[in-house]
UniProtKB/TrEMBL annotation, chain B:
Organism: Spirosoma telluris
A single MF term (Gene Ontology): phosphorelay sensor kinase activity
Protein name per the record: Sensor histidine kinase
Cellular component aspect of the GO annotation: membrane
Domain Signal transduction histidine kinase internal region: 165-242
Keyword annotations from UniProtKB, A to Z: Kinase, Membrane, Transferase, Transmembrane, Transmembrane helix
SUPFAM superfamilies: ATPase domain of HSP90 chaperone/DNA topoisomerase II/histidine kinase (SSF55874)
Amino acid sequence: MTLSCIAVDDEPLALGLVCAFIEKTPFLNLVGRYSSAVEALQGLMTTPVDVIFLDIQMPDLTGLELARVLERSNRGAHTTRIIFTTAFDQFALDGFRVDALDYLLKPFNYEEFLRAASKARHYFELIQRPDPTPVAVQAPAP
Amino acid sequence: MAVTLFSRRYVPLLIHVLGWFLMGYLLFFYQSFNSDIQFPRLFWVRQCIFFGLMVGTFYLNSQRLVPRLLLQGRTSHYILSLLAVIIVVIVLVGCVEFGFDLSTKMHLAFHPDGKGKPKPYGWVQPTLFTIFLVLGISTSIAMLLKWQDDANLRTALEQAKTTSELSFLKAQINPHFFFNTLNNIYALTLIDTETAREAIHRLSRMMRYVLYETQSGTTLLSKELSFVSDYIQLMQLRLTDKVSVTLNTPSPLYDQPIAPMLLLPFVENAFKHGVSALHPSRIHIAIQQQQNKLLLDVHNTVFVEKTPSLEAGNGIGLTNTRRRLDLLYPDQYALQINEHTQAGEYHVHLTLDLS
C-alpha cells in the first residue's frame, strides 16, 4: 500500500531533508511541500492526504494549531494522521494531546524517520481491515 | 594579613578592658587624687564589691537579657528582669553599706571633728545612677552589635542574591537554536558539503564562545560582535528568501571589554518576532561606536497577528536582559523600545557606556 503525504516546515533546508527522506521511501508518495501551515491548510482543502510531516514552531500558524484545525474538520471524513518534526521535546505532550501518530526530534536520521513512517503504514493497514480475520488454528489430527 | 586578623579579633576585647579600666579609675582613684582625705579601708572593699557587681550586671544584660528577652520581642520580661537586677544589686550594696557601717565611717573621714550627722542612705543615689549608666551602655552596645550583624548579613544576602541572579540571567543560548541549526547542517551535508563545513565551523565557534567566554564576566567587543555575526549567518541558513537581514558593524573597531552575550537577546528577539512565512520582512541591525559608547539599533518588521515564530521560550527575554543591564551597567545604559515606528517596524535602541 502507498500513503500520500505532505511535508510542512518553514526552514527550507529542513523541508528539503524531510522531502528527500519521503522520496527515498517506496511506500510514501509526496504530493506537496509547504513552507507554512497556512499554505498547507489550503492545499489540504483540495487534496486530503494520509500523513503530514509537520514542523511545530512556525511563524503565522504553528504546527499544533494546524493539527487542532484538522482534528476539528477531520471527523468521519478522510483520516489524516500527523507526524510532528521538531527540535522542541517539551511539545511531545501537546503532540499526543492532538493525537499525533509519532514525534520526530530534529535532527533525526533516516532510520528514525523510517520507523515513524512504518508506524503510519501499519496504522493505515489496520484501519483498512475493520474486522481482521481470526487466525484459524488447526488442531493436529488425532 | 595574619597580623591584621589577629589585632582585629582583639579590638573588642581591648575596648572592654579600656572601658572597665576607666570605670575602675573613677571608682578607685578619682576621689583619692582630688582630696587628701583618708578613706576608711572598708570603703575600698565596698568599691571592689560594687565594681564586681557592675561587671556582672553589664555582661548579664548584654550577653543574656538583651539577646534572650529584648531581641526576642519579650520586652516586658526584659524590663521586669532589669528591675529585679537593680533591686538585687541595691540590696547587696545596702547589705555591704550597713554591714560595714560605712556611712558613719565615711562621715568621720570627711568630718574628723565629728560635726553633723551621717547620712545612712546617701549611697543610694550615686549607686542607682551608676547602675543605670552601666545598664544603658550595656544595652546600647548589645543592640548596636546586633544591628551591625544584621546589616552585615543583609549586605551578604544582597550580594549572594545579585550573584545568583546574574548567573541565572547569564547568557544562555536557546538549545533549540542549536538543534534546529544542527538539523539544517544535517540537511546541508546531503546537498552542499562546502556550506555545511562552513556552518559547522561557525557553530563550533559559537559553542566555544558560549561555553568558555561566558564563564568570565567580560569579553572583548570584537568577540561579541563576531558571535552575533555568526548567529545571524546561521539563522539565515534557516530562513527563506522572504526575509532580508542586514548587519552593520563599526570598522575600524575600537576593541573594549564588554559583558558576554549582552547584544544577542536583541538580535534573537528580532528573529523571534520579525519573521513571517507569508509576507516579506526585513531585519536590520546596526552597531556603532562613539568614543566609549556603544550604540545598537535593531529594526524588524512587525506582524499584526502574534508570531510565535522560530524559537518560543527564547533564551533570555528582553525583561531579563534589562535586569542584567541594571546589574552590570547601572546608570550606564539607555534602552528605548519603540513597538511600532512610523515605518511599521519594531525598533530597539540601546546606548551602552563601556568606559
